[in-house]
Specification:
By secondary structure, the protein is mainly α. It has one domain: Four Helix Bundle (Hemerythrin (Met), subunit A). The protein is 79% helix and 0% strand. It contains 6 helices and no strands. Helix 3 packs antiparallel against helix 4, helix 4 packs antiparallel against helix 5 and helix 5 runs antiparallel to helix 6. It is elongated and about 40 Å long.
Length: 120
């Protein structure tokens, strides 16, 4: 599928509310279309998710929440997990902080990336 079509599909999914947890078009751009590199990046992110879950679960004060959210925001942005990055940004700024939403999104990403890895 060519890049223009991928972008159109991604935008249509976003508009329809069926947006994937990771923007694979963004990831493809970052990896210059190298599918093996995309998979490696996703696997590295997947390997770090237990650490992010633990950081968020154990965050007890505003400083700990900030550090956990900031870490998650950066990692999520790098792989194109933009819904998670936005949730983490909100938590980082202490706006609309919902720890469970972030934990749920991390679980959704884990499931999604696991499926992608199996299909590869």
């Amino acid at each position: 599928m060519n890049m223009a079509l991928k972008v159109d599909v991604a935008e249509a999914c976003k508009s329809a509310g069926t947006e994937k947890p990771i923007d694979l078009v963004h990831l493809s751009r970052l990896t210059m279309g190298d599918k093996d590199l995309e998979l490696d990046v996703l696997k590295m992110f997947l390997a770090q998710i237990p650490n992010y879950l633990q950081m968020m679960k154990s965050a007890q004060n505003s400083d700990q929440i900030y550090v956990a959210a900031h870490t998650i925001k950066g990692a999520a942005s790098n792989v194109g997990a933009f819904p998670l990055a936005q949730m983490a940004r909100d938590a980082e700024l202490n706006q609309c902080f919902a720890k469970q939403d972030i934990l749920d999104e991390l679980s959704r990403i884990t499931e999604y990336v696991s499926l992608l890895a199996v299909e590869a």
